[in-house]
Write a structure and sequence with these properties.
- There is one protein chain.
- By secondary structure, the protein is mainly beta.
- It has two helices and 22 strands.
- Helices cover 8% and strands 58% of the residues.
- The strands form five sheets. Strands 9, 10, 11, 12, 13, 14 and 15 form a seven-stranded antiparallel sheet that branches.
């Protein structure tokens, strides 16, 4: 009786209910999809050039991959990245139960602009070099690209300016031309960098040489020393006070093609490199080309003097070149 009732009951169940029961049984046997436990970026915002660490941990996945060129990865891991722009990274995990994904965004900011340049250039190695008696080249260097100028004149008010040009550089050169002979000039350097910062050097001074005489003298011979006068006068038995003198004497020849109308002879007495005294003698007689004239000069002795020299100038006061064979 029971068996017959069960059979009758089954006959009364719609086919749809049977199929639903089978489907539910199949779903109950399917595994769960993977679980994304961790997927983070540390930090998630950087400045271009910095690095970020991407970390993840996945449960029950048979395959895991991350886009943006990273590719397949293990279920747990990390990677260091240095993106150059803001990007979204998507992790995808798969198993028999299905596929899951998660994205993180790494924000990349541009480099901040550099702070404004407020430091003036540093000026160094200021040098004045004579190209002629009236032409001087001023050179200097700077620690950064800059342009510059030289201010110069016969006082610290300067008054004249020469620029180094419009091209920025670190090695600079300016020519001062048309200077007066035998004149003291003051000068200073002024520079400006690309940010507009300016710097000014200390004051410098130079002396242009006196004009040279067109005449030339050749030293035939020269001698200097000390001599003493006084003591006992022979034959008279009289004692005269002794005096000691420095002297220099010699001969020079006019090696010019023109007649010297007069020669200014200057005797210089030196103690080491210090000039202690000078004496001047003027040879007034004309000196013909090729003619030799003698000089003999003296002055009161100075015990500190260890050297005596001679120099010559023409009647205009211009130094005469002296050749010492």
């Amino acid at each position: 009786m029971s068996h017959i009732e069960i059979k009758s009951s089954l006959r009364g169940i719609p086919i749809l209910v049977v199929m639903l029961s089978v489907l539910l049984s199949a779903i109950a046997c399917r595994p769960q999809p993977p679980a994304i436990l961790v997927f983070i970026a540390t930090p998630d915002e950087i400045t271009i050039g910095q690095s970020v660490t991407l970390r993840w941990s996945i449960k029950d996945a048979t395959s895991v991959d991350i886009d943006q060129g990273i590719g397949d990865v293990p279920a747990t891991g990390s990677v260091v990245l240095s993106p150059t722009r803001t990007l979204a990274y998507t992790l995808t995990a798969t198993n028999a139960g299905g596929t899951v994904s998660k994205s993180v965004v790494i924000y990349v900011n541009p480099q901040p602009p550099p702070p404004p340049d407020t430091r003036p250039p540093l000026i160094s190695s200021v040098v004045a070099s004579f190209e002629s008696d009236t032409k001087v080249v001023i050179t200097w260097t700077t620690n950064e690209l800059s342009i510059g100028q030289v201010e110069y004149g016969e006082s610290t008010d300067y008054g004249s300016v020469v620029t180094s040009g419009s091209e920025f550089g670190t090695v600079h050169r300016v020519t001062l031309d048309g200077l007066e002979s035998n004149t003291v000039y003051h000068y200073r350097v002024k520079v400006r960098d690309k940010a507009g910062n300016e710097a000014v050097s200390a004051d410098y001074a130079l002396i242009t040489p006196a004009p040279k005489s067109p005449y030339v003298l050749v030293l035939e011979w020269v001698e200097w020393g000390r001599r003493t006068e006084g003591g006992v006068v022979p034959g008279f038995g009289i004692t005269v006070a002794e005096n000691t003198y420095l002297f220099i004497k010699g001969s020079v020849r006019n090696n010019s093609r023109a007649t010297l109308r007069g020669v200014i002879c200057t005797m210089n007495c030196w103690s080491g490199d210090t000039l202690t005294k000078s004496e001047v003698y003027v040879h007034h007689s004309p000196v013909l080309p090729g003619q030799v004239f003698d000089f003999n000069m003296e002055t009161a002795d100075d015990p500190s003097v260890d050297k005596v020299t001679i120099e010559f100038a023409d009647s205009s006061g211009y130094e005469i070149q002296l050749i010492n064979p």
